[in-house]
Amino acid sequence: MSMNFRKLAPAVVAAALVLSGFVTGTTTAHAATIKQGVKCSPVDAKKTVGTVKYTCTTNPVGTPAGNTWTTSDCIAANGAYLSAKKEYDGFVASQTSTLAAIKASIEASTHSIDVLNQQIALTKTKEYIVGYDHTVKPTLAIKVVGIDAAIAAITAHINDITTKRDNAGKQRDASAAILAAKYTATQIAGWAAAPVSALSNADINVQNYANWIRAYSGYDGALSSAQKDIANLQKVPNNFSTKLTAAQAQVDSMTKRYDQAIANQPSQSATIKGASTQALSVRKSACKAGL
After folding, report:
1. Which of 11, 86, 133, 189 is at 20 to 30 A from 68, Cα to Cα?
2. Per-residue model confidence as pLDDT tens digits over 94-130
3. pLDDT of 41-97, one tens digit each?
4. pTM, full prediction
């Protein structure tokens, strides 16, 4: 009888231990150790207790350190926070970059205005050739200081040669009228076409006609040249004025954009940062130990 008891005793004891839940690996004992913040292994192991899913990983909150059981809600909340934080950090970096670019554009345009003003000032002291003195040998260039004086001088020259050209035209027409009483239209047209040859004609009226044709042509050529000269001179202040207007418009536009960006930044930043702060708060709650 005692022999049978000794053989059965180990089996009975083992059964009692199993029913008591003290054997490692039973459902009751294992479930009791799976809580958020409890140390675990191996990494990435997964368990489900009721409706709660756990993963063995580093808790985003970092308490305690190392791999611990972490709920799926905590992991999801961490992803939402990181996304919100990335958006906020990106906004701050973008705003900083944008403001720097706008400011650089303003500075570049402002510098352009300074350079243009310096160039305009230079035109006030620069010497300009407005004609030549052919009465001396060698011929001397006639110069004036400042573009305004140059434009005024050439304008006066244009007025003078215009008057002379128009007078030569009147004299030419008067000479043609005198010739018409004596010569045919074909003859007069021939002298008009070759005034240099007409100078050798014995008739003084033909010579006069040829001289006035040559005078008109000479004055007309000088007038055309002077008009080109003044057009080129007038381009200088006109070009500077156009460039100044464009540069100032750029400064005004970029300054307005810069001011708007500065004014809008606080509210935009607060909105995006608020989302990030809220996501951080949610993560903190979802990742606390004991869940």
Report:
1. 86
2. 989 999 999 999 999 999 999 999 999 999 999 999 9
3. 999 999 999 999 999 999 999 878 899 999 999 999 999 999 999 999 999 899 899
4. 0.60
